[in-house]
Every structure is written in C-alpha cells, then in structure tokens.
Amino acid sequence: MRCFARERWCAREREREREREREREREREREREREREREREREEKEGEREREREREREREGEREREREREREREREKERERARERAREKERERVRESKRERERERVRERERGREGEREKERERERERERERERERERERERESGRERERERERERERERERERERERERERERKSERART
Description:
Number of helices: 1
Oligomer: single chain
Structural class: mainly alpha
C-alpha cells in the first residue's frame, strides 16, 4: 500500500515536474516571443529611424533642390540684370549716336553758315576789288584827262609862242620897211 501510494506520488511528482518543465518551456517560449517582440520593436524602431532618416534625406534633398532653384533664380536675375545692362548700354549707344549725328548736323549747318559767310566775305572782297579797280580806272581816266589838258595847255602855249613869233616877224617886217 505504501509502495502504491509512493508510486502514485512519484507519478504525480513526475507529472508536476513535467508540468513545471512545460511551464518553464512555455515561459521560455513566452520569453522568446517577448524577445521576438522586442526584436520586432527594435526592427520597427530601426525601420522607423531609417524611414525618418530617409524622410530627412528627402527633406534635405528638397531643401537642396530649393537652394538650387534659389541659386538658379539668382543666376537668372543676374543674367536679366546683365541683359538689362546690355540693353541700357545699347540704348545709350543709340542715344549717343543720335546726339553725335545731331552735333554733326549742327557742325554741318555751322560749316554751311560759315561757308556762306566766307562766300559773302569773298563777294564783299570782290566788290571792294571792283570798286578799287573802278577807282583806279577813274584815276586813270582823270590822269588821261589831266594829260590831255596838259597837252592842250602845251599846244596853247605853242600857239602863243607861234603868235609871238608871228608878231615878232611882223615887227621885223615893219622895221625892215621903215628902214627902206
């Protein structure tokens, strides 16, 4: 009876031991599950961190693209400013060209006026020369008239001398007749 009771006790004890072993196995399984859970969580966290890093890289890429767009906008503004400077330079060149043409027209008109004034001065000099020639001709005519008058006076003197000689001859004849 004691042996039988002991056998039952031993059987129960073994059963309890097996139960405890199963419990320990379940606990180990639960631990493994918890470990797997922790691993999944770690992986999940790592995945989340990786996704966050990826999002950060994406955000950084977007920021870099924005910076590049900003740089491009700045470059475009600079190119536009350069084009505007070139256009302004061209406009200034056109304005200066117009001003130069206007100055040239003014100089041309001035040269024309100066040329006209010079021609007028030349015409005046010619008129003066003509007046001088006329005065010279007048002096020449006057001189000719004076010479003619002088010759006339000379002829008159010659006639007077001739008359004087004639009177002298007449006196001479009278005297000759008186002597005879």
